[in-house]
Amino acid sequence: MGNIIVGQSGGPTAVINASLAGVFKCGKDNNIKVYGMINGIQGLLEEKYIELNNEIKTDLDIELLKRTPSAYLGSCRFKLPNMEDNTEIYEKIFSILEKINVDKFFYIGGNDSMDTIKKLHTYGSTKNKNIQFIGVPKTIDNDLAVTDHTPGFGSACKYIATTVKEIIKDATVYDAKNITIIEIMGRNAGWLTASAALTKSDDCNGVDLIYLPEVVFDIEKFICKVEKLQKTKKSLVIAISEGIKNKNGINICELEEENTLLDCFGHKSLSGTANNLARILYKKLGCKTRAIELNTTQRCASHFMSEVDINESFLAGSFAVKAALDGENGKVVVFERTSNNPYNIVMKAHNVYDIANIEKKVPLQWIDSENGTVSSDLIDYIKPLIQGEVYPIMVNGLPKHLKLNK
Amino acid sequence: MGNIIVGQSGGPTAVINASLAGVFKCGKDNNIKVYGMINGIQGLLEEKYIELNNEIKTDLDIELLKRTPSAYLGSCRFKLPNMEDNTEIYEKIFSILEKINVDKFFYIGGNDSMDTIKKLHTYGSTKNKNIQFIGVPKTIDNDLAVTDHTPGFGSACKYIATTVKEIIKDATVYDAKNITIIEIMGRNAGWLTASAALTKSDDCNGVDLIYLPEVVFDIEKFICKVEKLQKTKKSLVIAISEGIKNKNGINICELEEENTLLDCFGHKSLSGTANNLARILYKKLGCKTRAIELNTTQRCASHFMSEVDINESFLAGSFAVKAALDGENGKVVVFERTSNNPYNIVMKAHNVYDIANIEKKVPLQWIDSENGTVSSDLIDYIKPLIQGEVYPIMVNGLPKHLKLNK
User: Fold this and answer.
1) In Å, how far is B387's CA from the nearest CA of chain A?
2) Choosing a second label site near B41 at 20 to 30 A (CA), which of B67, B89, B216, B250?
3) Using an 8 Å Cβ cutoff, are A183 and A279 in contact?
4) Are residues A174 and B282, on separate chains, in Cβ contact within 8 Å?
5) Could you tell me the CATH number of the domain that includes residue B231?
6) Predicted ipTM?
């Protein structure tokens, strides 16, 4: 039997390393050597990889890895060219893999990364190569098709709902009219923003309004709504997705001025939606406003993870290896929810062609944009995913992380 | 013996309610009725107060209160006029207190709030009133004079250092040149920003540069420094105080454009320093940059508190009551550090005149602005304050808070 190689790709999450730990542990338990690509497929093309068995030596290392945020192996945003446009790159990848006797290839990532699995699998099948390709889902955005939800989503929701609940407490502390606008990640899908609705409970009034990017954001109606709410409530807390757009498809952050930055990859960063909306409200209503952007912390807050999420992430990694050992190829690990109360899922290996490059948005029937709320079905869907806590291993007052010695 | 009244004032912290719990518990243990002012002295003037014994009924309620962020009783930013300008307001306060037979008055707050204690004590002494006034320190900013540090500072530092450590992991995930600028609270004092230096450890390279508001921020030198660092390191993470100013005393957030918002109290909000600096770097170096503002979460993240801090906050509240029972008046509870290793403090009651309205900044010998670092003395000073963890009481996946039924 050949060796395993595993890589991480796309934006990191708090639990992406739990999936890596799952792949490694299952490989190790089956006495298979496990390689790790440094910076995903981009690094592999430069023959940058390590033997994970040399790095992760003890069970404590595995536990530390599970609790380490961001991608331990490094990540990339690299789209493989089409096979017909550039066969050299495929030949190169396969020759590198063959050189180190790899016959099982795992890639942990979102829908862009699943495109890599799809293309490599397609090339391998066409050329009768003996390498299996399996995708392990990962994204805080929860925008992957077919699967009930994605690893990483639950922990991000738990962190967001907790932080929003704390901000609501903070916002109501003075006896004065004020508006807080909280900006949550999500360019096209509002899953994460919806988690702010979980704050409503017997000890918290919850957020007053929620706006997701799936529905056109009508600023005039929004201002009217806020004015009306202010008549009965001094302190308003509003959750919005970074990607909300007006009827012309213009992002709210781009409405008044050019205040965008380019992120690490030259993508236009949508940072600034809450700030812009706070400015507009202040101008229109003359009311005290503040904008809070939850930002990168949403995808890396491993100090407060969902136990359900970290366990599922780990198991998704080991399930991928088991699926490969069972002969699966060109598949992605997906979750199927068999029951909501009590919560239960089963894992399956699903055809990558149904998943790669497809973005799953929040169903419109779960959004009530007229009232700025989401349905109880959506809340019931998210709630099981934030249950239980896994805390970091603390050393000298701070979380300990596993560091790659590259 | 008369009754106790306690109020909370100024910006909230993650542990301000632990001090309230301390006052309440010690009063209750001494069979004294404890009133709580709603929205501090401002609410008291409108006779808004509650009997805390009716609200906090069980030991679990006390534990919940300790873990509830923001001010349970509500807060205010209200400066009492000078005695000679307005005696009516003082007469009114004292008559309200006398009506409910209060002879011990506790105020939990920062240096502005201690001004209230000072003025009420002065008026009381002048008029031979039989009411004792004691201040309980509270501020994440750690800018209170005389005391070694303030309750609230340790938990904020722990949250900031943990989050910055997670952001550093996130920032290094891609094999690409990038700069992350993290904006931390602190208009005039850089204590909180200094806590970002705690990230440097055997599993983390730490932040690359730190800038505090105590020292003039030289943009040209800063850009040179960044350019130089980029020659050996692809990913840079820089921590700055929101209040850093150039040699003309202009806040960096106000340099390029008018992008400030007014906060709840009409104060100019300095939000935007990191954003502005990121824009400037992007223009000058053409490099990918991102700005992260830690924001309000620094003062309300009760999901990840320092055990040392929450214990000290609780004990400061009960010490205040004991001091009053011992006959102290016109005093503030202060901490004196008797040993750093092992860490130990003693509490004392100190004259409020030495503390009210005075802002304690980071000593200049602890800041190396030339190299963008802080001294090991500063790190050694903060480190004991972030030790140990107190986690929330979790219900249905989220922290449970104690809610005031007003």
Assistant:
1) 4
2) B67
3) no
4) no
5) 3.40.50.460
6) 0.95
